[in-house]
């Protein structure tokens, strides 16, 4: 049976072109020109994948994504976005979208994204699979084996993370990994698992942000037939499926309070009870959790259970954003180039100097995930042996900088001059962060000379060493 794709875009030409192209490639394609009409269709029809424009006439991509996932949790969603919306598109990934693609749309790129998304359908068997035989492995996880899949940067931060994963892997300590979206939290979790004594057993990754509140307990712990409406078969939960191995709880801060309580019980007792069952069963699972928010602060503010946080946080790993470790950009760019060459059946050898310079000096809101997408797109667009600057998105070639102070600040001032000075100080700091603390670039963005910038930094006590 053909897999069904719903294209949601108010541009009728794009819709018709995509329908024609995807139909030729073996998919059943339906079209919707507004968010509302798309949701009406999804309510009454199964859809394997939704290809959704971020800017719709009646709602934006985040609202459409939330609604689609609430109606059809198993429907994969790819967001189509202009490059200026990449930062928001990355937020959509956190909310459950499997991928985003940027305009202009290239057929090969979107087809590859669709194939990849549909291949990642998670199929948990209705009945418990046989557990792997617990015999000592003759295969060793040598560094060379790991490095085929995991690349370590050359920055001090990356080397420190590598040291920590090597120290943590042989233990059974629960780990919390914190970092911005796209910094590679799941890759670090996989690296810890593959270097551990549990490497022969499952590594199960769950995006807690994509779990509907009502179904989260069933997904995590399983249920028995007839335990609730729609439970037509016994279901193995993620914890049972991961038994003996590692379970990775991504965006754990999005779990509801009730499900946090249930998770805490599992951590304390190392037992799981399926929904509708009256008996527990033992589990042996290592837990690695991840979040792009500060769970320490969230627990103190009552947004995340403090007792659960302390159970999970036997060790914390903080991942720096890519813009703070520029030495790593070339390493990862070359790694993603090799992957893109293989996936797109091309043989690009490397990067022109100007292209590499632009990559190194971009802000990378989406971190490694955004870099990977940019490289794949550049490989697709490059006719020669090397990626040139012209193959990069306009936002990277000629970046724009947002130095508007955050509106969420709660400082109060007694006079207008203090307000203006505080706003100016925050604007300078924000631009310095975005240009990698390059004062010449910051002065150009702020449209002042270097001397004026130095004077203002001294006046506002902006110390780049802190």
Features:
466 residues; alpha/beta; Rossmann fold; Helicase, Ruva Protein, domain 3; 4 domains; 5-stranded parallel β-sheet; 44% helix; globular
Task: Explain the overall architecture.
With 466 residues, this protein is an alpha/beta fold. The chain folds into 4 domains: 4-119, Response regulator (Rossmann fold); 143-318, Rossmann fold (3-Layer(aba) Sandwich); 322-397, Helicase, Ruva Protein, domain 3 (Orthogonal Bundle); 401-466, Homeodomain-like (Arc Repressor Mutant, subunit A), CATH 1.10.10.60. It has 20 helices and 16 strands. A hairpin with an 8-residue loop joins strand 11 (271-272) and strand 12. The protein starts with a strand and ends in a 7-residue tail after the last helix. 36% of the residues are buried. Residues 121-148 have low confidence and may be disordered. Residues 151-380 form the Sigma-54 factor interaction domain. Residues 125-146 are annotated as: Disordered. Keywords: ATP-binding, Nucleotide-binding, Phosphoprotein, Transcription, Transcription regulation. Residues 128-145 have a biased composition (Low complexity). Residues 4-118 form the Response regulatory domain.
């Amino acid at each position: 049976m053909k897999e069904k794709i719903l294209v949601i875009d108010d541009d009728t030409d794009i819709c018709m072109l995509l329908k024609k192209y995807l139909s030729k490639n073996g998919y059943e394609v339906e079209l919707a020109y507004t968010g509302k009409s798309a949701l009406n269709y999804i309510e009454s029809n199964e859809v394997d994948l939704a290809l959704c424009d971020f800017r719709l006439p009646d709602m934006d991509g985040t609202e459409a994504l939330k609604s689609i996932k609430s109606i059809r949790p198993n429907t994969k969603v790819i967001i189509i976005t202009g490059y200026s919306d990449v930062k928001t598109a990355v937020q959509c990934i956190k909310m459950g979208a499997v991928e985003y693609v940027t305009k202009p749309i290239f057929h090969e790129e979107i087809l590859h994204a669709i194939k990849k998304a549909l291949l990642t359908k998670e199929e948990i068997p209705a009945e418990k699979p046989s557990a792997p035989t617990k015999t000592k492995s003759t295969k060793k996880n040598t560094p060379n084996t790991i490095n085929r899949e995991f690349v370590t940067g050359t920055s001090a931060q990356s080397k420190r993370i590598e040291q920590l994963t090597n120290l943590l892997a042989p233990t059974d300590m629960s780990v919390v990994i914190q970092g911005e979206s796209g910094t590679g939290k799941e890759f670090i979790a996989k690296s810890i698992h593959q270097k551990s004594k549990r490497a022969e057993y499952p590594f199960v990754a769950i995006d807690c942000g994509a779990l509907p509140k009502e179904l989260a307990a069933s997904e995590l712990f399983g249920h028995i037939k007839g335990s609730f409406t729609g439970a037509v078969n016994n279901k193995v939960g993620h914890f049972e499926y991961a038994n003996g191995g590692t379970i990775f709880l991504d965006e754990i801060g999005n779990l509801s309070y009730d499900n946090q309580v249930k998770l805490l019980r599992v951590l304390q007792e190392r037992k799981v009870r399926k929904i509708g069952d009256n008996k527990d069963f033992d589990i042996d699972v290592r837990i690695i959790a991840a979040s792009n928010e500060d769970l320490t602060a969230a627990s103190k503010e009552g947004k995340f259970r403090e007792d659960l946080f302390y159970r999970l946080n036997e060790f914390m790993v903080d991942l720096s954003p890519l813009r703070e470790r520029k030495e790593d950009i070339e390493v990862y760019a070359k790694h993603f180039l090799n992957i893109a060459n293989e996936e797109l059946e091309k043989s690009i050898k490397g990067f022109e100097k100007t292209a590499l310079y632009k990559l190194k000096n971009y802000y990378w809101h989406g971190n490694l995930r955004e870099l990977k997408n940019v490289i794949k797109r550049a490989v697709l667009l490059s006719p020669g042996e090397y990626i040139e600057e012209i193959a990069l998105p306009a936002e990277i070639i000629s970046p724009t900088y947002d130095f508007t102070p955050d509106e969420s600040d709660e400082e109060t001032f007694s006079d207008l001059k203090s307000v203006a000075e505080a706003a100016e100080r925050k604007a300078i700091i924000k631009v310095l962060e975005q240009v990698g603390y390059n004062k010449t670039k910051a002065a150009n963005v702020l449209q002042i000379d270097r001397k004026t910038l130095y004077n203002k930094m001294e006046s506002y006590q902006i110390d780049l060493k802190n």
